[in-house]
Amino acid sequence: MKPRRTVPGRRAAVWDRGVRTVRLLALPVALVLVWWAVSGSSFYLPSPVRVGQAFAETWFSERLAEDVVPSVGRLLAGYALAGLLGVGLGVLIGSSARLRATMEPVLEFFRAIPPPVLVPLIMLLAGIDTPMKVLVIVSGCVWPILLNTVEGVRALDEVLADTCRMYGVRGASRMRRFVLRGASPQIMTGLRQALSIGIILMVISEMFASSSGLGFTIVLFQRQFQIAEMWSGILLLGLLGLGLSVLFRRVERWVLSWYYGSGVARA
Q1: Angle at Cα 223 formed by Cα 217 and Cα 226, nearest 5°?
Q2: Which of 161, 188, 224, 248 is most deeply buried (CB count within 10 A of its CB)?
Q3: Full-model pTM
Q4: Quick count: other Cβ atoms within 10 Å of Cβ 11?
């Protein structure tokens, strides 16, 4: 039975939550105040109130369905495909020392190529529609997932591997209970890195020969000197990244509950 908190204990908990909330909001509020103080001195830096009005007028309209939803859909599709490729190939390469030694120079070579320079090539191969944009996201997201998965599988505990072998744990059961579980902290690290890369590449892919999406719309506003609307698009991208980051952290805490609960993560 869960022990009940005393009145001083409840007050201390409320005080702690209040302090955490103030700490969380202090820096964003300070940044908005600085923005407010310096805005108005330039045409290219409208006030927070003007940007807020532009945000409501622009994104709570048909642009939500025409630009935001397709962008998020392409991001999630590319991210999911990169996750499947990265984890699948990472487990395969990480499980074999010989294959890992053969592939490592090639992986390092392709990882060193900045994904934006591949956009013209991908446009030639896949056209300018949705497949091109998804492939651009995949081309950048797959590397952190792949390399972290390889490292996670390579670092699996040899004693546990021998134990699985002795008890006859093989096949899908070994993959699920030992390999993927043991490498999951590294896999989640790669997925977290890939998420921010995916948002960047989503915007870049939509700046090339596109007629919809957040990247296209922000550039369109800039060319038409709709500065407040352009800033509202940048603000929306920041909020999108923040929301996805919070969601990913919750998923990560759920997937790695065994890891955080063991105290290894705090060591």
Answers
A1: 75
A2: 188
A3: 0.84
A4: 11
